[in-house]
Amino acid sequence: MFLPQRIDLYAEALTASERNLAASLRQRYPEGLLDPASVMAAAAGTSAPTVVRFFAKLGYPSMAEVRREARTQLTAALPNPSQRSNFTIGGERSLSECVDDTVLHDLHNVQATFQQLDMAAFQAMVQAICQCQGRIYVVAGENSSPVAMYLTTHLNICRSGVADLGSRTPFPVDRLLWVAPEDVLIAYSIRRYAQDTLQAARYFRECGATVLGISDSMAAPLVRHAQHSLLVSTHNASPFDSYTATFALCNALVSAVAQQLKDDVSQSLQKRDSLWAKMQAQAGAAAGPSPRRSARSKGK
């Protein structure tokens, strides 16, 4: 619930000074919420303590939460970090406030992502990954490449045939040569919506393959090409998108796949540990005895 709705809900409980403040804030919403309490008070002809009590009465736990709402509302429609910078880092903040604002935004991002989670779509995506008879490809834009890397790394331990399509520009078209109807594409795309990711999703659908989308809006172009989609919240206290909720959702996805394929995962982990030990031993043998040990041998 945002400020206008909160004001309507608590209208009868507001004092005369608080009603004047509410009218002033409505006129300057949401950018006015970024002002210090003293500035809000001066604009409404009241005091800073009245401003603080007003927001507490409306259910805001802190002024930091008020600023978070303002930044979220102001930056939601701005795809470019340079456009968002004035509303996120334009004012003065201490280092402590930067930390607090970041934690507040990411807590809300994670909460919003899982509150809106479509469990039917989540289950369908887990099933598609587990039951895929072909290969599983993962793709994300260049700035989102860590997301693709995370999913590829962990799903590859859960099952075979997982590959990262890459985030290079121009797009590595050769990796699409053998796409087949039994394949699955997991595509991640958030605002600015990289064209390479959308082209890959479109091509997989043309091939009859399954496309699983993760995006920040049901209006995102990727959603039109995906059989199943999940949404993430990416608001931040800086000009850049936050990936905290994205990794939390991906973690849940990997956890669910691992649970469904627990026997395969157990075997692959044991095999990985065995391979690791073998390669470590081979690397040690190739390096030969240490200089200290060789010196001791010569002294005998």
TrEMBL record:
Gene3D superfamilies assigned: Glucose-6-phosphate isomerase like protein, domain 1 (3.40.50.10490), Winged helix-like DNA-binding domain superfamily/Winged helix DNA-binding domain (1.10.10.10)
PANTHER family in the cross-refs? GLUCOKINASE, RPIR-FAMILY TRANSCRIPTIONAL REGULATOR
GO BP annotations of the record are:
glycolytic process
Q: Could you name the domain of life of the organism this protein comes from? A: Bacteria
**Which InterPro entries does the record match to this protein?**
Homeodomain-like_sf, HTH_RpiR, RpiR-like, RpiR-like_SIS, SIS_dom, SIS_dom_sf, WH-like_DNA-bd_sf
Q: State the organism named in the record.
A: Comamonas aquatica DA1877
Question: Which intervals hold domain HTH rpiR-type?
Answer: 1-77
Pfam families linked to this entry: SIS (PF01380)
UniProt entry keywords in alphabetical sequence:
DNA-binding, Glycolysis, Transcription, Transcription regulation
Ranges for domain SIS come to 125-263
Q: Where is the composition biased (Low complexity)?
A: 280-292
Q: Which SUPFAM superfamilies match?
A: Homeodomain-like, SIS domain
Say if the entry is tagged with keyword Transmembrane: no
- Molecular-function GO terms, alphabetical: carbohydrate derivative binding; DNA binding; DNA-binding transcription factor activity
The molecule here is called RpiR family transcriptional regulator
| Location of region: Disordered | 280-300
